Amino acid sequence: MSYSTTDERLMDSPKRTESTDIQSDGQIFKKGLNPSFLGIQQTSKVTVSRRYLDTKTHGVQLYYQEFTPQFVDAQVIIVHGFGEHSGNYQQLTDSFLLNNFKVYLYDQRGFGYSGGIRGQATVEQMHMDLDIVLQLVDRSVPLFIFCHALGASMVISFCLMNPSFQFQGLICSSAQLRVPAKYGKIKMLTLKLMTKLCPDLQVNTYQNLSYASKNNHHIKKLATDHLMHPYMSIQFAYNVLLFQQFILPNATKFKIPVLLLHGKRGQSCIALRFP
């Protein structure tokens, strides 16, 4: 893998446990749960289910997880960004569980434990995958979606293209909502031409993991994670940029309550600045 870090960001920081026990009423979700098992495991207050879901693409399955607390007041689907996987969101999952949220996670196709060619998909396929997960959700319980980076672009475009789909709220972390300025008309035309000549060519996105977290230990964990994948096919890149061009011109059609979050020093996605 080819990831980079910025030395000045790699200062010593307090070491955090990656997935500690949930400290609610003194005991609950034990760290001892195997993160890669398939089936159902239970603790005194949390039920964990992990399995594979069939998609509309023959032979491609999604790695899917459900975390159900003893009492469910609401539910949330967590959608990860490009190059990563749902395993990076265990601490966030723990926080939601503490507040009686049922949590759904899945690895997007081509990433993590899910099937599909690494770093090669289309946003349309990702929309279909999200729809499969949504069919598993109990709509009688308030639903929220938390999504990060590319995952946010995918979810927002899904909502714009499916206006009948309603839920309680959307939380977007480092959402990529517009095409970076460096992709001018000439580069876009060149990229379009390359999709005709070599659509499956994988290019390194050179993600700088120093911008992923302020915590040095977490950055090192990401850098050594064999499930992280920084490569993207030409076709995938062009498809993503086309959908990002679609989002802002249609933003007024978006009626679902949304919270946009972006780190002050985050560089992986462009932040929208408002006066």
From TrEMBL:
Compositionally skewed regions (Basic and acidic residues) per UniProt: 1-19
Serine aminopeptidase S33 domain location: 73-265
Superkingdom to which the source organism belongs: Eukaryota
GO cellular component: membrane
One annotated GO molecular function: lipase activity
Pfam family, one: Hydrolase_4
Signal peptide segment: none
Residue ranges the record marks as coiled coil: none
Disordered as annotated region, ranges: 1-23
Protein name per Swiss-Prot or TrEMBL: Serine aminopeptidase S33 domain-containing protein
Organism from which the protein derives: Paramecium tetraurelia
